[in-house]
Amino acid sequence: MTQEKFFWADQIADRIIKEKGNKKEYVCASGITPSGTVHIGNFREVITTELVVRALQDKGKKVRFIYSWDDYDRFRKVPVGIDKKYENYIGMPLSKVPSPFKKSQSYAEHFEKEFETSLVKVGINPEFIRQSEMNKKCKYASLIKVIIDKRIEIVKILNKYRKEPLKKDWMPVKVYCEKCGNDFTRIINAEGYFIEYECKCGFKDKIDYRKKGLVKVPWRIDWPMRWKYEEVDFEPGGADHSAAGGSFDTAKEIIKKIFDYEVPLYYVYSWIKIKGGKDFSSSEGNALSLDEVEEVYEPEVLRYLFVGTRPNKEFQISFDNDIIKIYEDYDVLEKKYYEGQANPQEKRIYELSQVNKPAKKRLKKTGFRHLITSVQLKKEKELNKESQVRAKKVARWIEKYAGEDMKFEVQTKVSARLEGKEKETMKELKKSLESRDFNEKELLDEFYMICEKIGMKNTEFFDAAYRVIIGKSKGPRLASLILTIGKDKIIKLLEQIK
Ligand SMILES: [Zn+2]
After folding, report:
1. How far is residue 374's CA from residue 368's CA, in Å, rounded to a whole number?
2. Pairing of β 315-318 and β 174-175
3. 318 pLDDT band (50/70/90 cuts)?
4. Ligand 1 center to 176 CA (angstroms)
5. How remote is the CA of residue 451 from the centroid of ligand 1, in Å?
6. Contact call for residues 124 and 52 (beta carbons, < 8 A)
7. What's the CA-to-centroid distance between 163 and ligand 1, angstroms?
8. How many CB atoms lie within 10 A of CB 491?
């Protein structure tokens, strides 16, 4: 985290106000095509928007936060894991393709609902706009007329960035056939609000697109059209749209020249990486969904990762043992915040990491590392309510991602073979535990005293203790482990060493 005078989302909010002027309401947008599970990389877009929305609101501004589901886009290909028969639906709008899963109305709706449910959990509640519904209601008819009227100009703009120029008769709109639902259609004539088309299936018609929502505008034109329609002031975009000659380059020309409107403030966000667990890539069908991330990350800790890194910087979400450090960092920040030790930057990061406003008093939670032990000892009931919620994430993490060194089972019988000195130290440990109560720090000091007394290396002592207690050479921090298991049980185990 860099030390800046202002926090990044506040800086963007300031720029929006400066560039767009004082408005009654600012519009911040985000969106995606629900062609499959929305992966965690795309989540970065919506949380970037949401943080800017919060920053604007904290400045007393009114904001409309919209999320567009591009479910009127065509079904392009059958993703991995979906029945091959779905090839029959290629060319239809995603909103018309049946759901491959139970409970959902359509293919698009399944993925929309999945993501919407996960968003609520991290405190993100935009106004969702379904493009299929907007088109059904013919909302864009007057803008579509502008597109058709100015098609020669549009082709000129698009051709500047194309290796192979579009043909002169190229149409900047597509029609979904009313009869078969596919977009394997050809426009014969377009005049005013009327389009005459024919389909591969043999169907032919002339429609008034103010009455029949069958027209689809391709992405590069659709994007600026919606900036105009919704009067968008801010929208982040991924690196894919932001490359030279990419859809942002053409969109910013189209919005000015075709729709006579200003370009929204744009911010490029970088992809994120997944460390440990499975690699993520949406095209391979092994995308990690927000829901899967939420299984092991608390909403606040997940938000903290995104809040704490400028959107244009890459970072990784860890699923290996590094997750412990991420939780610890968050807990340190929280402690600082409530003790009044956080600097302005840290204070802001903490505030925006919260699903709602920060609680008045700190709700103290047991650390992730300690919970790894508690969970495996099935001691969750001894925890407070907040820690029990965290313990569920830890349990899921142990089950799915934890390294072998983090997993253990407490022994009831000593199976470890011990050498002379090892036996001696274990007997000393038993004596110590019987003599008095220890806290974690005191017990750790006691280990070193025992080693010194017997003349044994610390590492050898730990190795022996772990083998006795959990049957392997490595495990969670020994002092904490012993105290969590309970010294009586450990004493019983050590008694077996003769
Ligand atoms: Zn047809």
Report:
1. 10
2. unpaired
3. very high
4. 8
5. 83
6. no
7. 31
8. 15
Ligand 1 center–CA 183 separation, angstroms: 8
| Cα-to-centroid distance, 194 and ligand 1 (Å) | 18
Across the range 316-331, mean pLDDT stands at 94
Q: Residues 366, 379: contact at Cβ < 8 Å?
A: no
* pLDDT tens-digit readout, 134-151: 999 999 999 999 999 999
Residue 274 in tokens: 């997944």
In the chain the domains, ranked by start, together with CATH numbers, are: 8-269 (3.40.50.620), 408-498 (1.10.10.350)
E strand spans, 304-457: 315-318
Can you tell me which residue has the tokens 């939780």? 327
User: Phi then psi for 250, rounded to 5 degrees?
Assistant: -75, -35
DSSP 280-342: --GGGT-PPBHHHHHHHS-HHHHHHHHHTS-TTS-EEEE-STTHHHHHHHHHHHHHHHHTT--
Q: How far apart are CA 52 and CA 11, in angstroms?
A: 9
Using the mean position of ligand 1's atoms as its centre, give its distance from the Cα of residue 96 in Å: 14
Taking the centre of ligand 1 as the mean of its atom positions, its distance from the CA of residue 198, in whole angstroms, is 8
For residue 488, give the 3-state DSSP assignment.
helix
**392 φ, ψ (degrees, to nearest 5):** -65, -40
Quote the tokens at residue 165: 């120029």
Query: Rounded CA gap, 198 and 430, in Å?
Result: 88
**Each residue of 337-349: pLDDT tens digit?**
999 999 999 999 9
How far away, in angstroms, is 181 Cα from ligand 1 center?
6
CB contact set of 47 (below 8 Å; sequence gap of 6+): 122, 124, 303, 306
Q: Are 492 and 418 in contact (CB under 8 A)?
A: no
For residue 363 the two structure tokens come to: 């709700």
- Mean pLDDT of the 119-147 span: 98
- Band the pLDDT of 5: cuts 50, 70, 90: low
**What's the 165 CA to ligand 1 centre distance in angstroms?**
28
Ligand 1 centre distance from Cα of residue 170 (Å): 20
Place of tokens 């083998």: 467
**b/e per residue 130-152 (b: at least 16 CB within 10 A):** bbbebbeebbbbebbbbbbebbe
